[in-house]
Design brief:
The structure holds two protein chains of two kinds. Chain A is mainly alpha-helical. Chain A has eleven helices and no strands. In chain A, helix 1 packs antiparallel against helix 10, helix 2 packs across helix 9 and helix 10 crosses helix 11. The radius of gyration of chain A is 18 Å and the shape is globular. Chain B has eleven helices and nine strands. The chains are: A mainly alpha, B alpha/beta.
Amino acid sequence: MPEPFLMRALLAGLGLAIVAAPLGCFVMWRRMAYYGEAVAQAALIGVALGLALSLDLTASVLIVTLAVSGLLLLLGRQQVVPFDSLLGLLAHAALAVGVIAASLVRGPQVDLVGFLFGDIFAINGSDLRWIFLGGAVALAALISIWRPLLSLAVHEDLAAAEGADTERTKLIFVVVLALVVAIAIKIVGALLTIAFLIMPAAAARPLAETPEQMAVYAAIIGMVAVGVGLFLSLSFDTPGGPSIVLVLAALFAASIFPSVLRRR
Amino acid sequence: MHSPDAREARPAAGARSHDHCDHHAHHHHHAGAPREHAADALISARNLMLARGGRTILADVDIDIHPREIVTVIGPNGAGKTTLVRVLLGLEPLDGGEIRRKPGLVTGYAPQRFDVDRAIPLTVARFVSLGRRCSADELSGVLKDVGAGSLAERQLSELSGGELQRVVLARALVRAPDVLVLDEPVRGVDYAGEAELYTLIGRLRTERGFGVLLVSHDLHVVMAQSDRVICLNRHVCCSGVPQSVAQHPEYARLFGPQAALAFGLYHHRHDHSHDLAGEPHPSRAGREPTIGAR
């Protein structure tokens, strides 16, 4: 029987891999990688808020990721500043807030690196509950909007003309994204969360023939990366989150390589 | 199949048009009586108004689509054809006017641009079934109808332009639509493929009885399959049966006299020549339809 902290790390990583896989596919299909990045970095504001007010960190992060998603919906309506610039602005403003907040909080030293890159070996029982309950809710919500969301990703106007409720579908999607970002922060941190979403999906793409296949392959790739990453982390005493991401990058390279050769 | 004359002849069109189609900015609505919605229409729109960024895109446009009727909207680039389609489909908010749709109306739509996203792995069969959940038999039937029976298991990203158009049409048809809306369905298809596609749409219309709204900037082949043509240049320049529109002075002004002549020659549109004044080569003179002198 492995150490309890290792079991918790493994369970947390595997749970996140399962919910991140289908979500990451849609993030990739809908070209929302940078959006996800901005929301994930904004989570640092939630961390700062949680520390300052002594709240449950996951809950305060969730409140902030939801608020930021709403803000982005509003800001998306103006057309003076391009949306990707807005996302960049938000991401870095959030980073600044996070770093400043960490330096201001007195008392026990705040582990900023932990919030930026995650601390999978520090996952406790309460975190696990968040991951599995929140993850189950996110997965169920995603499956319930799967068909209109897929239609939307393929061609939004066509989906809307065929009567899909595109606004409602998009709203549910950004809420699910905010929820998954909130539960991912402790595991892989504000800077690596989007990698955990995008990399399994990207690695699965060359292997898949259908959208569902891609989601399932992404989940398998994510889980393999968690297992191998944690093993490497323990063996070589490297940080957990970055080790998993490095394994994901290697898996992506292996998966994309044949297509690169074919295309020349 | 032709619709009753009462609908085809649009005397109001002349009254509502100015001397020059292009001068839409000075267009004012003269017709005093409000124009009633067509009661039996699938889609009936009146006085559609739309402006974006201070620029008028649609001014006082009326359009009706009836069951079993192919209505073709023609007009030059920038005439607002795609905007009109988007407004009728509810994809674009209106600044004025009213659209009535038959309750429970099912629409099949083939958009003008369809850029395949290679990031999404998707077979043709799966793409078509996104239009409506359907049985495998229905699916293969509709693919066969559009001549894409062998493509079902292919990836969408591997299709040629012509194959993709057929597959997009199949997705519109699988919905068992009351009205089929096709925005320039033949872009990127060669001339023979174009004629074939319109013949197919005409045949399916007869078999299934749906109405069709067809958009084109290229009228030659379209005309042969249309029951009614609406010539749009931000406002309705003229409308009616294809022959009457082709001979309408507004139409000749909008497209130039060559276009009106080419209509009569649509099976040979690339094998005749025009001199610098736009007059066709004398060898073709015998086939020219008569048009108003300019």
